[in-house]
Design a protein that fits this description.
By secondary structure, the chain is an alpha+beta fold. Helices cover 25% and strands 25% of the residues. The strands form 8 sheets. Strands 3, 4, 5, 6, 7 and 8 form a 6-stranded antiparallel sheet that branches. The protein has a 6-stranded mixed sheet with strand order 10-11-14-20-21-26, with helices on both faces. Strands 17-16-25-22 form a 4-stranded antiparallel sheet.
Amino acid sequence: MKTVSVNARILIGLAAMMILFTGCRKDDPVPEPEKIKEATDVNKFIYNGLATYYYWEDNIPALNNSKYKVRDSLNAFLNKYTDPEELFESLLYKRGEVDKWSLIVDDSRIIDDWLAGISESMGIDIKLYYIRENSNELVGFIRYVFGNSPAEKAGLKRGDIFTTIDGQKLTDANYRELLFTKKNYTMGLATFTGSDFVSSGKSVTMTAVILQENPIHMDTILTVNDTKVGYLVYNSFSNAYDSLINTNYDLELNRIFGEFKDEGIQKLILDMRYNGGGYISSAVYLASMIHSADRFKIFAKYQFNKNLQDYYQKNYGSNYFNLYFTDNISKTERTAASQINSLGINSIYIITSSETASAPELLINGLKPYMDVIQVGENTAGKNVGSWTIRDYIGDTEEVNPNHTWAMQPITLKIANSQDYSDYTTGLKPVIQLKEYPLDMKPFADPEEPLLKACTDHIRGLKTAVVRKGKEFRSFKYSDEMKPMNGIMIGDAVGAPALLEP
């Protein structure tokens, strides 16, 4: 028989008394857990927008973490970020390596102006280079001048060179302050002696104004060996309305193609060396003007993140992912619909550079299955993804949250051609490889302009002579403050679901 010691009996008795005593007490007040503060509307907008639409959502653990389906857990996570931009950046996939293009602004009107080509500027597009190796001094080359701008009125032109602003030498330390923060300045012009840049003794003084850049920089018809050749310098796939021409740029482009068609051009040279992107819809219109207005012919195909892909498949079917050539430019609030003026040609020359990105790459890739695309210049940038402008709409309405003005332009889609080819992240390679050297710059449409001459020589059946003139300079890599939307391809979020919320 087992026995229990006296000490053990005492302990058991005490324990029983404690149980009895605590069991008979009134319930102690249970302290309430500390309430988690509701996250700001901006942070919730950023998180929910990326969780819903971001192309690489599957690769970001925080965007598909099941614990953040619980409101308090999500609020606790979002409240770690007091700076909305820091939150946005933390949720991007391999920033700078894979995702180089997503952006966010604290005022949606900024994106609206960027997309419309509106800015306060002198009206010049420039490229900066180091004057020499082992120096921080820079030289600027003017690549083109906007129409009706302070720069045009001051007499500046393509190929002009400058080394000073307000008497200060341009360097990689002061270029931003001198070029992008001043409302007026004096630009000191220079010439190249063969070994160095020296002042030409000339200068121009300009004051910035609000400008809208017309992306159709030039159009003309050339005659090459009795062949009529259309030449078009196109710098952005913009569909904005321009009050100076009383129409939008898609319709203006269509008008020009109508003239090309009436003149019976047999060849087309499309110069997109400075085209950094724009609207997918404009690319579809231009492809239709060039090749075909057949509404049943596939031009390109969309691909989204898995959740969006499944949503569109379920609600709209497989055809939703196809982009077709078209015979009609859609009506807008300010313009009527218009029939596409299609040339129906079977070959095209396209001039490109390393800055040719996004929508122009879509155009080249989309046309290749149907026609001979003779690409002349450099490898393109290699951007096969696009974005939407995302605002904080309230539910399914068109009403924007009045509590903030933030907007995002994250990557939301990948795009392929009709043959499902989209593997051009290293760029589309030209048939005729030729680089633009700054000292070789000549006016657009000049028969001796090297890239244009390579196209016309090919039309004549001549071999292109790649000649370097003068000295090659190391380009200065900087974020292009003049064209912040470069590399952006903008789609239409037609039929997209409202933001997902926990």
